[in-house]
Amino acid sequence: MKLRAIGGEQKAGRSNGWRGAAARFLRRIGAAAVLLLLATGLALWWAARWTPDRAIYPVQGVTIDADNGEVHWGSIKAAGADFAYIAATDGTAGVDARFARNLSRARDAGVQAGPIHRYSLCHLATDQAANFIRHVPRRADMLPAVVWLDYDDRCPDRPTRALLLSELATFLAQIETHMGKQSLIAPGPAFEADYRVTRGIARTTWLRRDFFEPDYGAHPWTMWQANDYVRLSGADGTVGWNVLRAGGEMR
């Protein structure tokens, strides 16, 4: 009877020891998870507020589209936006539903604005230019148009570099005749790596890289989208935050 009691006590001790070790392990996992959540929350909070040092880049602005809802442009200006680029047209038929309203209200708030066209690899340049010209007014006080160059899941076409550069030159010539000023080109990193647009098209470049200066163009950038995660009280969701290189100019 004593031997059985001693054996039972040993088994109970081993069982309690295993359970205690498991509980301690789970507590450590829980503490690590809490710390990870806190670190993630802090990183997101920081990302939503970070903008480049204005002492280095004194001229800064936003990128706005319909996803930002009813934009309160007075608040955007108060947040430090000296200018705004507003989504306007996309391919041959796409039009940002809030472009005209945003353009008008930005001007009323004293924020200089310009239009963005998202270029499509699946449509002819002349048809895209017609869409742009139909919806974007020519105004002397408007900033130069930006041609956004990126891949789009809706478009599987991948033309040769020679064909792309030829079509893009046609598109630029037509919209620049309409606007009365040269455009900017804004290729994404993957697009630029494949097509080397900044090497083939002589235009002011707007490059994109969150938190770190981009270096993927053939020559230094004039505009930099530095943070695509900024949250402002005057707009829904996130906005792109952009800076103009010191000494740079948009005519």
Automatic annotation (TrEMBL):
UniProt keyword Manganese, yes or no: no
InterPro entries for this protein: GH, Glyco_hydro_25
Pfam families named among the record's database cross-references: Glyco_hydro_25
Spans through the membrane: 29-48
GO biological process, one term: carbohydrate catabolic process
Keyword entries, A-Z: Hydrolase, Membrane, Transmembrane, Transmembrane helix
Superkingdom field: Bacteria
Entries under CDD domains matching the protein: GH25_muramidase (cd00599)
Keyword hit for Disulfide bond: no
One function term, GO molecular function aspect: lysozyme activity
Family indicated by similarity: Belongs to the glycosyl hydrolase 25 family.
The protein, known as: Glycoside hydrolase, family 25
Species for this entry: Sphingopyxis alaskensis (strain DSM 13593 / LMG 18877 / RB2256)
